[in-house]
Amino acid sequence: DEIPTVVGIFSAFGLVFSVSLFAWICCQRKSSKSNKTPPYKFVHVLKGVDIYPENLNSKKKFGADDKSEAKNKSAMPKNSLHLDLEKRDLNGNFPKTTTKMQGSPDVDNSSPKHFAERKKDSVSPDSLKSITSLSSEDKQDKLGTLFFSLEYNFEKKAFVVNIKEARGLPAMDEQSMTSDPYIKMTILPEKKHKVKTRVLRKTLDPAFDETFTFYGIPYSQIQDLTLHFMVLSFDRFSRDDVIGEVLIPLAGIELSEGRLLMDREIIKRNVRKSSGRGELLVSLCYQSTTNTLTVVVLKARHLPKSDVSGLSDPYVKVNLYHAKKRISKKKTHVKKCTPNAVFNELFVFDIPCEGLDDISIEFLVLDSDRGSRNEVIGRLTLGSSAEGTGGEHWKEICEYPRRQIAKWHMLCDG
């Protein structure tokens, strides 16, 4: 009788020990996972409401107003991030607790003295000269001013950009004499991080107040980055109008002291000064027996700068036309950051008629942009009605079937 009792006691102790060990292992794994540096994450904060990944919750919010945080600190529990969901409006937005003056760029600063010191640094003549030199035409055409703030959160290893507002934008709609502005922001030179604000309707002084948080960017790399703001006006029926741009090199900008408030004049977009669009090398061969046209996109050279980074991401789109109607299309792969691209890609098109009399082929060289519409760098058309080298190349193809003929062509405006 004593042996079963002893066995039962030892079994109970073993079960309790196993459960305790399992719970301890789970706690250790959870704590070690929360202490790991999070991978790159992007968080968009709209109108001061903070949105964090579940494993990045913190006591301190660095996207909201410091004044409102200090004011509500005594009423909020220390270990909770309180958002009263019942106080949201029909659109899901939270009502603002502090009054904000229109056009005031210093709502996020807790100390007037600190703001005055940082403001003075941000608009110094030396920093303005280092960013860009305005021509006399740019000074005459006022495109407005952009207000924003920069901050680096060392605890989260996050780079924070708050686009506050823009003032004095020109009217892009001649009928209503207003604009529908929004802003696209790109972190150069890699162009990996592209974001944009919402569109604000019919205003020349848009107040965006949108915060973009980029996780996983080391502070040591901040000095090598450049911020590019593109100010645009939305157009429902055609391509959006470009109002201007702002380029901010972060070299020399110190973010270790806290949030830095800045404002910059919006300048005209950097339009290509040279009329040349570069050259494209293509090879074509007409197979009369199979009634097919073989097209090889070989190389492109001397492509112009497509953005402020000075580099393009070109690819070629090939369109086949029969009697001015497109019947087939192909495209090459994108070549990253190069003005002299090597494609070496072959395409075979079936010709729906006998001969090449009503056939033409169009080559579009485009710059790949994940954040917006791809911009056309240059265009080339080959056909019986084409002028210049395009018509000569097409004539040789028709006269010498089954022969691969390659030629360089100058690209025309897109």
- Specify Rg, calculated over alpha carbons: 30 Å
Low-confidence stretches: 48-88, 96-140, 271-275
Please write the string of helix (H) and strand (E) elements: HEHHHHEEEEEEEEEEEEEEEHE
Structural class: alpha+beta
Major sheet characteristics:
5 strands, antiparallel
Q: What's the shape?
A: flat
The number of distinct helices, counting runs of at least 4 residues, comes to 6
Strand content: 25-35%
Q: Roughly what is the average pLDDT, rounded to an integer?
A: 75
Distance between the termini: 97 Å
User: In CATH terms, what is the fold-level topology of the domain at 278-411?
Assistant: Immunoglobulin-like
CATH class of the domain at 278-411: Mainly Beta
Describe the structure.
This protein is of the alpha+beta class. Among the domains are: 144-268, C2 domain (Immunoglobulin-like); 278-411, Immunoglobulin-like (Sandwich). It is built from 6 helices and 17 strands. It has helices at residues 2-35, 66-71, 112-122, 125-131, 136-140, 389-399; strands at 42-46, 145-153, 158-167, 181-188, 194-196, 207-215, 226-233, 241-249, 260-265, 279-287, 292-301, 314-322, 325-331, 341-350, 359-367, 375-383, 405-410. A 5-stranded antiparallel sheet has the order 1-6-3-2-9. A 4-stranded antiparallel sheet has the order 5-4-7-8, with no helix packed on it. It has a 4-stranded antiparallel sheet with strand order 14-11-10-17, covered by helices on one side. The radius of gyration is 30 Å and the shape is flat. It starts with a helix and ends with a strand. Residues 48-88, 96-140 and 271-275 have low confidence and may be disordered. Keywords: Calcium, Cytoplasmic vesicle, Membrane, Metal-binding, Phosphoprotein, Repeat, Transmembrane, Transmembrane helix. The chain crosses the membrane at residues 6-27. It is a single-pass membrane protein.
